Each structure stands twice: as structure tokens, then as C-alpha cells.
């Protein structure tokens, strides 16, 4: 017998779980099922990242990222404190390592002010006082940054959702979709689900899910692998708080940073190299089908034309250890190759437009029966509670509950 529900959420990462949570907090009578293809929550992007709660420093004023990051980060800190998830306010430094980066650092300072972020300028002496091992000509000290464990956040949300009455189905990939009257019929290995509203938070597979559901996604997903190294335990005091380079404003990546984790380890990374499979955590993870599709795709050709220099440099640093070490030493000259060791990677779902442009802001497509979250890059985890409420408002509009939708939307702008 098919299960009839109001809302089916595909994807058990932090954003899918936060969306389900927002729906049930706003209307506990709604029936919500979350489908996750893996055997655990937050198995991919949500559980393989830097675990930084961002301040909202980087994002273009007025963008959805900027609007969500500042308030969303504070809400995430409160959520962690309320649910016994490890969290610590650390602040961070964004460091210009050369004079030619100073105009970009000044742009960040202007964005910080526009976005309501506390960012104090530091000179060489002040950098050395705070982080003696870090080299820089100037920096911004950002007060609001914090550290957590987003895998633990996902587990806390899953536990909360069970108490709210949601049905959580791990090991349940969505195999196919069909229209069934006013509902979408989702076939899984454990039977069919008939949903009034489909919410696609499938991350790396979000564009494929949108197409399978009969919709044409406005962007497509290009997987980028972010590889991490770890500072050996004897040098774990090399920095006391997260230290970031000044990012390239033309790219939606923050650059290789040095981050003390809550467990006492220090991670360096991530880089950003094209992955050869949607879940391409290693160079040897290759999906011929994805490569064949990309080879035919004008977006890939456009991407190559736009970013080939950056892409080649990232791949070289991934494949040649001394080049990676040289990049790290620009920020922390006291580190050398013997101080670092590989420690895994994550894969980022990066949206690309048809002309090859990398999309920097969130992308959410809305159709008659579905909401497709097609780009949710950093700071999506930071802002997930606010983004989940934003998506929940769209769900209630689909369900004809405009009053509830307005109330939920207002909660994200208060």
C-alpha cells in the first residue's frame, strides 16, 4: 500500500533535515517523510566539510547568501547549544599574504560592514601578536566565526524529527518518479510514497533528481572535490583559530585555509579540483556516464574556457605534493611537508550555468509539484535552519497555507 504524505524530502543532509524540521515546527499536523539513500544522516557534503559556522563576511550584499548567513549562523550556534552539539566561538583571520591582495581585503571589509559582520583590520604586528606562525601584510579579524560538528548537527536533527513525528528512511534511494493525480509517486526499495509536495535536497544528485521528476533544472551540478591535509599532532599549536587566505572574488571557493578542529586536530584545505564522479572522493573514482555527459555539454566547454588556468593550478597542487606544501607555506611559512599528511576529502555540488559560469548564490527552482534546491554551497550548513524555513514557506504556499507561509517567511527576516 503506497504511503500518502504531505511532503517528501529527498536528501538527509543538514538542509533536507532542517527543511523537514521547519515544516513540522510550523504545522505539527503535516506528514513529512525524509528519504536518504545512505545508511546515515549527513553522509556527504554535510559530514565532509570544514565544520565552520560562517559569519557572512564574503557574500555580495543583498544576495540570499548574505541575508541568510549572518542570522543563520547565530541560530545554528543556539541550536548546537540547545541540543548538546559541540560548538565554540573562535573568530578567524582572513590574511592578505601580499600587497596585491590588499584591494580584495578592502572589498571584504566593505562587505563585512554592509552585512553587519564585525571585522577589524590588523597590520603585520597585530597579526604576529595573534598568530605568530602566520605570514601576512594585513588581515581582517572576524569575531563571529564558530566551529561545530555538522555530522553531529544532522544526528541531532534526525533525533528531533523523530520526536516531531517525521518518518525518516535511511537506505531508501528514490528510484523513479511519476505523476499520480495531484501527487508525485516516488518509488523506493521499500515501496511507493505519494507526496503532495516533493522537496529535492539531494545535493550532488539534485539536478538528476529534478530531471527524473520531470522538471528541467535551471542549472546543472558539477562535482568539485575538496581535499584536506592534517597537521601532525606535534605541530597542532601552529595556529590558535581558523586562518583563511583572501579569496578570489571571481570564484565561489574560499581557498586553502588552516582550521583547528574541536577534537584538537588542525586541518588544512580544502582545494577545489573537478571530481570525475558525483561522489568522486578520490582520483580513481570515475563515472564514465558523468564524463560522457559532460563531454557533450556546452556548459563544460564554457567552464573550461573561463577557468582553465585556475583548474590546472588546482589539479597540479592536488597531484604534486610540493606544490600543495608551497601553497600552504604562503600562509603559514613554518609548516613543511613533513608536518602535513592527507586526511580525506569532501565533494561539493557546484551549480554551473549553460554558459559555463559557476553560480555563487543559492539556486532554488519551484515547479507545480516540487521544490528543487539546486545550489546550496557554503554557507548552506551555517544557514541551514534559515534556508530550511525559507523552503518550508514555499512548501506551505504549495499546500495552500498562505498564512503559515507568510509567518514562516517572516521568521527568516526578523
Could you say what the CATH topology of the largest domain is called?
FAD/NAD(P)-binding domain
Proportion of residues in helical segments: 25-40%
Q: Evaluate the radius of gyration.
A: 21 Å
CATH homologous superfamily descriptor of the largest domain: FAD/NAD(P)-binding domain
Instruction: Give the overall shape.
Output: globular
By secondary-structure content and strand pairing, the structural class works out as: alpha+beta
Question: What's the number of domains?
Answer: 3
Keywords: FAD, Flavoprotein, Oxidoreductase
Family: Belongs to the L2HGDH family.
Protein name: L-2-hydroxyglutarate oxidase
GO molecular function: oxidoreductase activity
Report on the architecture of this protein.
- The protein has 414 residues and is of the alpha+beta class.
- The protein has three domains: 3-46 and 151-219 and 361-411, 3-Layer(bba) Sandwich (FAD/NAD(P)-binding domain), CATH 3.50.50; 92-143, no CATH class; 220-358, D-Amino Acid Oxidase, Chain A, domain 2.
- The protein has eleven helices and 20 strands.
- Strands 1, 2, 9, 10, 11, 12, 19 and 20 form an eight-stranded mixed β-sheet that branches. Strands 13, 15, 16, 17 and 18 form a five-stranded antiparallel β-sheet that branches. A four-stranded mixed β-sheet has the order 6-7-5-14.
- Strand 1 (3-10), helix 1 (14-26) and strand 2 (32-35) form a beta-alpha-beta unit.
- Helix 1 packs parallel to helix 5.
- It starts with a strand and ends with a helix.
- 50% of the residues are buried.
- The mean pLDDT is 93.
Amino acid at each position: 500500500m503506497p504511503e500518502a504524505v504531505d511532503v517528501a524530502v529527498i536528501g538527509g543532509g543538514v538542509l533536507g533535515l532542517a527543511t523537514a524540521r521547519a515544516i513540522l515546527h510550523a504545522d505539527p499536523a503535516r506528514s513529512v517523510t525524509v528519504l536518504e539513500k545512505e545508511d546515515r544522516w549527513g553522509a556527504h557534503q554535510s559530514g565532509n566539510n570544514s565544520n565552520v559556522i560562517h559569519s557572512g563576511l564574503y557574500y555580495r550584499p543583498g544576495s540570499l547568501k548574505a541575508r541568510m548567513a549572518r542570522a543563520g549562523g547565530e541560530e545554528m550556534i543556539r541550536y548546537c547549544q540547545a541540543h548538546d552539539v559541540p560548538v565554540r566561538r573562535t573568530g578567524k583571520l582572513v590574511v592578505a599574504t601580499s600587497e596585491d591582495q590588499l584591494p580584495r581585503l578592502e572589498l571584504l571589509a566593505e562587505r563585512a560592514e554592509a552585512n553587519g559582520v564585525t571585522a577589524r583590520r590588523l597590520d603585520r604586528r597585530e597579526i604576529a601578536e595573534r598568530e605568530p606562525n602566520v605570514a601576512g601584510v594585513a588581515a581582517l579579524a572576524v569575531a563571529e566565526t564558530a566551529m561545530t560538528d555538522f555530522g553531529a548537527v544532522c544526528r541531532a536533527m534526525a533525533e528531533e524529527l523523530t520526536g516531531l513525528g517525521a518518518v525518516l528512511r535511511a537506505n531508501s534511494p528514490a528510484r523513479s518518479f511519476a505523476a499520480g493525480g495531484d501527487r508525485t509517486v516516488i518509488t523506493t526499495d521499500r515501496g511507493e510514497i505519494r507526496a503532495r509536495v516533493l522537496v529535492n535536497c539531494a545535493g550532488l544528485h539534485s539536478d538528476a533528481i529534478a530531471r527524473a521528476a520531470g522538471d528541467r533544472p535551471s542549472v546543472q551540478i558539477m562535482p568539485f572535490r575538496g581535499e584536506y591535509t592534517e597537521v601532525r599532532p606535534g605541530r597542532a599549536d601552529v595556529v590558535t583559530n581558523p586562518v583563511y587566505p583572501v579569496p578570489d572574488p571571481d570564484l565561489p571557493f574560499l581557498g586553502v585555509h588552516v582550521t583547528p578542529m574541536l577534537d584538537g586536530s588542525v586541518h588544512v584545505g580544502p582545494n577545489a579540483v573537478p571530481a570525475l564522479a558525483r561522489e568522486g572522493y578520490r582520483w580513481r573514482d570515475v563515472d564514465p556516464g558523468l564524463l560522457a555527459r559532460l563531454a557533450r555539454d556546452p556548459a563544460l566547454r564554457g567552464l573550461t574556457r573561463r577557468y582553465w588556468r585556475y583548474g590546472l593550478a588546482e589539479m597540479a597542487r592536488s597531484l604534486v605534493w610540493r606544490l600543495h606544501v608551497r601553497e600552504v607555506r604562503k600562509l603559514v611559512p613554518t609548516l613543511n611537508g613533513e608536518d602535513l599528511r592527507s586526511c580525506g576529502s569532501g565533494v561539493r555540488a557546484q551549480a554551473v550555468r549553460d554558459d559555463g559560469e559557476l553560480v555563487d548564490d543559492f539556486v532554488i527552482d519551484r515547479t507545480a509539484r516540487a521544490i528543487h534546491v539546486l545550489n546550496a554551497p557554503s554557507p548552506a550548513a551555517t544557514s541551514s535552519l534559515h534556508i530550511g524555513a525559507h523552503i518550508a514557506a514555499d512548501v506551505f504556499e504549495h499546500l495552500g497555507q498562505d498564512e503559515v507561509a507568510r509567518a514562516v517567511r517572516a521568521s527568516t527576516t526578523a
